[in-house]
Amino acid sequence: GMLPAFSFSSSEVLKKWVKLTAVNGSCELDVFAEMQTLTEFVMSKML
Fold first, then answer.
1. Considering the entire predicted model, what is its pTM?
2. Among residues 2, 18, 11, 9, which one has the least CA distance to residue 41?
3. Which of 19, 22, 25, 41 would give a disulfide with 9, using CB separation of 3.0 to 4.6 Å?
4. Buried b or exposed e, range 22-37, using 16+ CB within 10 angstroms
């Protein structure tokens, strides 16, 4: 189903964001681009 793919993909994105904030404690993100990437990642796991 879709839930395992979404869960895995979300975890990977969150790990990336944690790395981005590790140096300064915060960062700017283009939320639209990040959500588009997440959607593509989930869909690639589904196919």
1. 0.75
2. 9
3. 41
4. eeeeeeeeeeeeeeee
CB 12 within 8 A of CB 41: yes
Interacting residues of 34 by C-beta distance below 8 A, sequence separation 6+:
13
- Would you say residue 45 has pLDDT above 90? no
Best CA proximity match to 38, nearest among 23, 1, 2, 24: 2
DSSP string, 2-47: HHHHHHHHHHHHHHHHHHHHTTTS-----HHHHHHHHHHHHHHHH-
